[in-house]
Write a structure and sequence with these properties.
alpha+beta, Fructose-1,6-Bisphosphatase, Chain A, domain 1, five-stranded mixed sheet, globular
């Protein structure tokens, strides 16, 4: 299936910004109190409320198109169009009144992400891209970094209990031994798009879910990043390892992840 996905960007970007503002308002009114779905897996009332808001608006904007969301599930057939949503990525930060969280809206067609919008409330930022149309930050073009070696690279390595702790520690060790500097910020979606914007040189995670990464992957590819084959196999239902990097260091990071 082909389509002019860029034509959808203005409406989806506006929706992302509105959803982020809605989440911030819910936190102020008490919707940011967290409970646990599992160890270190936080959820708030705002997560569900924002996903319901997104589903309602997308249903009006694009009637009949399927939706997969972190909180409410849904279709995992990537033929699409399929909207893939994370209403609040970085919930642990959100619940502690931090700013490192975002709303993620991705569109998958033919098994691959073709459009992505990542919206923050504070600072007010919208990262956006559609296949073939480039990537922007608040409407201005953005590109991956030109970093050419590990010795001057800043790399975020996401962590979750979906992969063994020992494997995470070992990966961090290999990156440090290769000269890379490490960061971990608590939002995979933001880490991915900050790599796309050149604020980071790479984002890696040994396992990430589709709703955390679909939108960001579309953005990163349009920004010129090197990426692994995250959107392969049963990625929508089960997730995969992910790697997004400045193009000149991507192959080296792929080798470090493969050990």
């Amino acid at each position: 299936m082909s389509g002019n996905w860029a034509a959808r960007l203005p409406a989806v970007s506006a929706l992302g910004r509105e959803a982020a503002a809605h989440a911030a308002a819910l936190r102020t009114s008490g919707g940011g109190v967290a409970s646990l779905k599992g160890r270190q897996d936080f959820v708030t009332e705002a997560d569900g409320a924002v996903e319901r808001f997104l589903r309602d608006r997308l249903g009006r904007l694009f009637p009949g198109e399927e939706i997969l969301g972190e909180e409410m599930g849904g279709a995992v057939d990537g033929a699409g169009p399929l909207w893939v949503l994370d209403p609040i990525d970085g919930t642990s930060n959100f619940a502690r009144d931090g700013d490192r969280w975002c709303v993620s809206i991705g569109l998958v067609v033919g098994g691959r992400p073709v459009l992505g919008v990542i919206a923050r409330h504070r600072p007010d930022e919208v990262f956006a891209a559609a296949e073939g149309a480039g990537a922007t930050l608040n409407g201005r073009p953005m590109r991956a970094a030109t970093t050419d070696g590990m010795g001057n690279a800043t790399i975020e390595v996401g962590w979750s209990l979906r992969s063994p702790i020992e494997a995470y520690i070992a990966l961090c060790g290999r990156i440090m031994q290769a000269g890379g500097g490490l960061r971990c910020g608590g939002s995979g979606a933001l880490g991915l798009v900050e790599a796309a914007a050149g604020r980071l040189d790479a984002y890696l995670e040994l396992h990430i879910n589709s709703w955390d990464a679909a939108a960001a992957l579309a953005i990163a590819r349009e920004a010129g990043c090197w990426t692994n084959a995250f959107d392969s196999g049963d990625w929508l239902a089960k997730g995969n390892p992910i790697a997004v990097a400045a193009p000149r260091i991507g192959p080296a990071l792929a080798r470090l992840m493969a050990v």
